[in-house]
UniProtKB/TrEMBL annotation:
InterPro entries (alphabetical): Peptidase_S49, Peptidase_S49_N_proteobac, S49_SppA_C
Gene Ontology terms: biological process: proteolysis
Gene name for this UniProt entry: sohB
Coiled coil: 46-86
Enzyme nomenclature, EC number: 3.4.21.-
Entries under PANTHER family matching the protein: PEPTIDASE S49, PROTEASE SOHB-RELATED
Species annotation: Marinobacterium weihaiense
Domain called Peptidase S49: residue spans: 164-306
Broad enzyme group: hydrolase
Residue spans crossing the bilayer: 12-33
Domain spans labelled Peptidase S49 N-terminal proteobacteria: 4-160
UniProt name for this protein: Protease SohB
Keywords: Coiled coil, Hydrolase, Membrane, Protease, Serine protease, Transmembrane, Transmembrane helix
Length: 354
């Protein structure tokens, strides 16, 4: 029995490899086709958080409230909506100014990686918000990022500055982490909220790289680094690094750190930057003590409360996946599913054999 499952597992492994190989081949062909086309355009999707919560409430009522009472509530709700629409139509027909609508809140999401890849979507979302929002509105950014490249997060921060420069209130919610470049973005906000155990801070700069020069020397391999300009290349992975190059590299790190501290100080003058700009991170409650944030809460609670008095909309920039991306996603999902099922069968067979 054990030999049978071993052979069956080997067969499945070969099958998975074959399927993945075919998908990668077709994906490669698709990539060549996609490159010949113009860049794909995306579109803005808008969803009402108020409507979503109302739908949830209706579903709960249908399950726990008396059926007749639930129908009565639904009837009254529809009647009220109809009356409001009728009143608005009448006011517009008579040339009257309609009542000022409720304050609007636009919710954006940023899930940061090393390269702040989400900035491409963020810039489109911010542009869309600025075409509609005014000074009475608010933008809420749900931010998750451990940081990354300085120039990438500098651009992401600049997108948030576009909101501030228009006089629109900006709130940043951190549920898990906003560190280093993530905090560079967060500190721009008028109001920073973090969950009790969210990680916040890391106002510092780090760089690390291996050096294989001695290994290459051991195998009689020469690696030439040719530059024009004294500091065109300070440290390298394969060339021989010098003390002078290291000193210059550290000097550049210190200068970047100084710029980072100045940036944070401009947006959060109440913060003792010299005390917190040590590269350390703090959990939410400790971050509040250090004035890195303004309040303790989750984004869920904050948005739930806003929905009581405001119209809350979630915005996202969606790009239709090309052939290459769809095939790549299919390959990952297929291989993961097959491997999971294979592992479950092997595990079950071992348990049965015992």
């Amino acid at each position: 029995m054990t030999a049978f499952f071993a052979e069956y597992g080997l067969f499945l492994a070969k099958l998975i490899t074959l399927i993945a190989g075919l998908l990668l081949l077709v994906g490669g062909i698709g990539a060549l086709v996609e490159r010949r086309r113009e860049p794909r355009e995306g579109h803005i999707e808008v969803k009402s958080l108020n409507d979503r919560l109302e739908d949830m409430k209706t579903d709960i009522e249908a399950a726990v409230v008396d059926e007749a009472l639930a129908r009565q509530h639904d009837k009254l709700r529809r009647k009220q909506e109809k009356a409001e629409a009728k009143a608005l139509k009448k006011a517009l027909k008579q040339g009257k100014e309609p009542e000022k609508p409720r304050k609007r809140v636009f919710v954006l999401d940023f899930d940061g990686d090393m390269h702040a890849s989400d900035v491409e979507s963020l810039r489109q979302e911010v542009t869309a918000v600025l075409t509609m929002a005014d000074k009475d509105d608010e933008v809420v950014l749900r931010l998750e990022s451990p940081g990354g490249l300085v120039h990438a997060y500098g651009l992401a921060s600049s997108q948030l500055e576009r909101i501030k420069s228009k006089g629109i209130r900006l709130t940043v919610c951190v549920d898990r982490v906003a560190a280093s470049g993530g905090y560079m973005m967060a500190c721009i906000a008028d109001h920073v909220i973090a969950a009790p155990f969210a990680l916040v801070g890391s106002i510092g700069v780090v760089a690390q790289l291996p050096n294989f020069h001695r290994l290459l020397q051991k195998h009689d391999v020469d690696y030439e680094v040719l530059t024009a300009g004294e500091y065109k290349r300070t440290l390298t992975v394969f060339g021989e690094n010098t003390d002078k190059g290291r000193e210059k590299f550290v000097e550049e790190l210190e200068d970047t750190h100084a710029l980072f501290k100045t940036f944070v100080s401009e947006y959060r003058p109440q913060l003792n930057v010299e005390k917190v700009a040590t590269g350390e991170v703090w959990y939410g409650r400790r971050a509040l003590d250090e004035q890195l944030i303004d309040a303790i809460s989750t984004s869920d609670d904050y948005l739930f409360e806003l929905c009581r008095e405001h119209d809350v909309f979630e915005l996202s920039y969606e790009v239709k996946l090309g052939l290459q991306e769809r095939l790549g996603q299919l390959a990952v999902n297929t291989s993961d599913g097959l491997l999971l099922r294979w592992w479950q069968r092997v595990t079950n067979s071992r348990l049965l054999s015992r």
